[in-house]
Design a protein that fits this description.
469 residues, arginine biosynthesis, Fumarase C, Chain A, domain 2, 61% helix, L-Aspartase-like, two-stranded antiparallel ribbon, Ribonucleotide Reductase Protein R1, domain 1, EC 4.3.2.1, Fumarase C, Chain B, domain 1, single chain, elongated, 18 helices, 3 domains, amino-acid biosynthesis, mainly alpha
Length: 469
């Protein structure tokens, strides 16, 4: 079923058929494409371009095609190039001449632009639901570990004591911003291109507002050229996906490090790890390593799309066929990560014994000691220098700050008094950091409660979008 055979005197070469077909990347669009076609049929009927009987026959025929695809009795043909022509060809087999009316007033240009938006809308709602599970698992861990005191790190060196709940909430807020990007990507695709035709609109009186209404878009697109040339909404998706994958990679990297014998702060469940083919003792964090590695695929997909778009003149160009390859790959990767990561996080254990050992040397409390001096009127830079010299002396003498006697403290820093010993407890250090967003237990509890509220709002927003899928 060649759309252009009237113009050509030769059949397409087999190598060209193989090179230009897109079934390997657009067959997943079947349901969205048929949904768009059914809306188009109703618009044609509303304009009296087809009869009521033809409308019903076309709708029933499209349902039959979808049923055949789902039950496996209809297989796509490569020589028909893409999902659109395979559906239309089968519909014409079923209905004869009536099937040929389906494409009235429509081009594959506006058809694929519409189908992509329908498809991606549903995918984003599904991904959003899984992201909600991820956010919930982080909230649960934060609430469970509020009073667990562990080392916080900068430059992979022990820096200051923190609440483990505060650590989990740091990832919660990053992923929550990603959920906002997801919602923005949904908003960006909420316009309907159907009826824009090849690029100039149509002489056939199609009601584009009705098309948008039937397909549950907020409005039709404003410009027919932009309608079929634009892939901004795909770039918005890839931006969301890229930032999300980077945040996943960072979390995975942390947990891989904290799970090592050298750190030992977290313990991963056996069921989310693998062993070695030669070393019997090994327990490898392969799931986390794969999450870290797969981020590269998603970032590559973003670059792939942008490079395709960069060199294109208006309006439609066949290069745009390639937009689906990176889209489908990134979607599969996102779903895979989101299927496994929330479950893994929920089953992580924190080893307080290992965390306590990491807090024992006392140097991690150096900032608390400097701030103790500041509250006694010592300028911060002077306090910083004094405590730095004290740390240097302790390192030379093989002592920790927490092991020093009052006499040793006064020899090092004359301004000290007995109250200094109140600064030398990691838990009290955490509890004193009550600035908004700090690691104090009370602040972490506030964050958790706010997170629960935001999670409820996210669920409502996703439910609203879900009604349009």
């Amino acid at each position: 079923m060649r759309l252009w055979k009237g113009r050509f005197s030769e059949d397409m070469a087999d190598v060209v058929v193989n090179f230009t077909q897109s079934l390997d990347m657009d067959w997943d669009l079947v349901e969205a494409d048929i949904e768009g076609s059914k809306a188009h049929v109703r618009v044609l009927a509303s304009a009296d371009l087809i009869t009521e009987e033809e409308k019903m026959a076309l709708l029933k025929g499209l349902d039959q095609v979808l049923s055949e695809i789902k039950n496996g009795t209809f297989k796509p043909l490569m020589e028909l190039e893409d999902v659109h022509m395979n559906i239309e060809a089968r519909l014409t087999e079923i209905l004869g001449e009536r099937g040929k009316k389906l494409h009235t007033g429509r081009s594959r240009n506006d058809q694929i632009a519409t189908t992509l938006r329908i498809f991606l809308r549903g995918q984003l709602v599904g991904i959003g639901s899984k992201m909600r599970n991820l956010l919930e698992s982080l909230l649960d861990n934060a609430e469970r570990h509020i009073d667990f005191v562990v080392p916080g790190y900068t430059h992979l060196q022990r820096a200051q004591p923190i609440s483990m709940g505060h650590y989990w909430m740091s990832h919660f807020w990053a992923f929550h911003r990603d959920s906002s990007r997801l919602m923005a990507a949904l908003e960006a695709l909420d316009e309907c291109p159907l009826g824009s035709a090849a690029l100039a609109g149509s002489t056939i009186p199609l009601n584009r507002h009705l098309s948008a209404e039937l397909l549950k878009f907020s409005k039709p697109t404003e410009n027919s050229i932009d309608s079929i040339a634009s892939r901004d909404y795909l770039a918005d998706f890839h931006h969301f996906a890229s930032m999300f994958s980077i945040h996943c990679s960072r979390l995975a990297e942390d947990l891989i490090i904290y799970n090592t014998d050298e750190f030992g702060i977290v313990k991963l469940p056996d069921s989310f790890c693998t062993g070695s083919s030669i070393m019997p003792q090994k327990k490898n964090p392969d799931v986390l390593e794969l999450i870290r590695g797969k981020a590269g695929q998603i970032l590559a997909g973003y670059v792939d799309l942008l490079v395709v778009l960069k060199g294109l003149p208006l309006a439609y160009n066949r290069d745009l066929q390639e937009d689906k390859r990176s889209l489908m790959r990134s979607l599969r990767t996102l779903h895979g990560i989101l299927d496994v990561l929330p479950q893994l996080i929920s089953r992580i254990e924190v080893d307080l014994t290992a965390a306590s050992r990491a807090l024992e040397d006392g140097y991690i409390l150096a900032t608390d000691i400097a701030e103790f001096l500041v509250l006694k009127g010592v300028p911060f830079r002077s306090a910083h220098e004094l405590v730095g010299k004290a740390v240097k002396w302790c390192l030379k003498e093989g002592k920790s700050l927490s092991s020093l006697s009052m006499e040793e403290w006064r020899n090092l820093i004359p301004q000290f008094d007995e109250n200094i010993f109140g600064c030398l407890n990691p838990k009290s250090s955490v509890e004193r950091r009550k600035t908004y967003g700090g690691t104090a237990f009370s602040e972490v509890k506030r964050q958790v409660e706010k997170g629960k509220t935001l999670l409820g709002e996210m669920e409502k927003n996703l439910a609203t979008w879900g009604e349009r899928c």
